Amino acid sequence: MSHMIKILGRASAINVRKVLWTCAELGVDYEREDWGLGFRSPSQPEFLALNPNATVPVLVDGDFTLWQSNAICRYLNDKFDGPLLGDTRQQRALIEQWMDWQAMELNTAWRYTFLSKVRQSPDFQDPGQLQASIASWTKLMGILDRQLQASGRYVLGDQFTLADVVMGLSVNRWLTIPFDKPDYSSVLTYYELLREREGFLTYGCNGIA
């Protein structure tokens, strides 16, 4: 019996939007359920049975369950024979390299700034830690700017890949949150290029940081 993929997670969460944009690029139909901030708590036992980390998104494909947004994006590309992970083993390795860099380095850098300026959490209002977060984030965005200058179009050249899905959402967050930023011209050019894609307009630069 056929079934439709389910994506569990609120549509405003950046990692859920990453998966939804991937679905849009691949033409994947899915059902989505709201879980997370403002909706059902992912700490409920039924959700923890799917993801013990109590984080969104979670993908349910029949009797198969998967968490971690980058893993979900890769799974979807492979399941639907997508073009978003390159044509060779080396291309895929480079795409995954930048996806992992975004998840491990870039996300870590902007977390304090996001919680301070967007969520306005009282636990993230230390001026020194905020400036350290901004400085680290700025340094890493400089690395991305130089990569885009060298690649000339997308993160890894002329071909749009999953590296651009994850990086595009980070660039949108960078440009949306207000603070003084260097003039990273290649990042700005890249952002305008991504705005030509319907999936980015819907799930990336849609007014949500």
Average pLDDT figure: 97
Report how far apart the termini are.
39 Å
CATH topology of the largest domain: Glutathione S-transferase Yfyf (Class Pi), Chain A, domain 2
What's the count of strands? Answer: 4
Strand order of the largest sheet: 2-1-3-4
The succession of helices and strands, N to C, reads EHEHEEHHHHHH
Q: What would you say this structure looks like, in words?
A:
The protein is α+β, with helices and mostly antiparallel strands and 209 residues long. The chain folds into two domains: 5-79, Glutaredoxin, CATH 3.40.30; 89-202, Glutathione S-transferase Yfyf (Class Pi), Chain A, domain 2, CATH 1.20.1050.10. The protein is 54% helix and 8% strand. It has a four-stranded mixed β-sheet, covered by helices on one side. Helix 1 packs across helix 6, helix 4 (89-117) runs antiparallel to helix 5 (127-151) and helix 5 crosses helix 7 (185-194). The termini are far apart.
Topology:
Blueprint: E1 5-8, H1 14-26, E2 30-33, H2 45-48, E3 58-61, E4 64-67, H3 69-79, H4 89-117, H5 127-151, H6 162-176, H7 185-194, H8 198-203
Parallel strand pairs: 1-2
Antiparallel strand pairs: 1-3, 3-4
Helix pairs in contact: 1-3, 1-6, 4-5, 4-6, 5-7, 6-7
In short:
The protein has 209 residues and is an alpha+beta fold.
